[in-house]
Fold this sequence. Notes:
By secondary structure, the protein is an all-alpha fold.
Amino acid sequence: MAKTCIEWYSWRWTIEEVFKILKKEGYNIEASELEYASSVKKLSILIMEVVIKLFLMRLSYAELELELSADPALQSRNKSSLTTR
């Protein structure tokens, strides 16, 4: 039950961050002075594309990167180049 509550709260926090980007601390969509609902919808879709990219960037930086050595690949490549000559 506690894990479920934490998971729901984390989703709520994510939604709050989206609204923060849409409103005062980001694109200030409320001050856009657009007259038609279709215009507000189009602007919101454009902004949401940016929001998704920001969240994807944050997720990619949150994961640890594996440090891979190129030595084994180079060694096997050198062996194959030696045998073809």
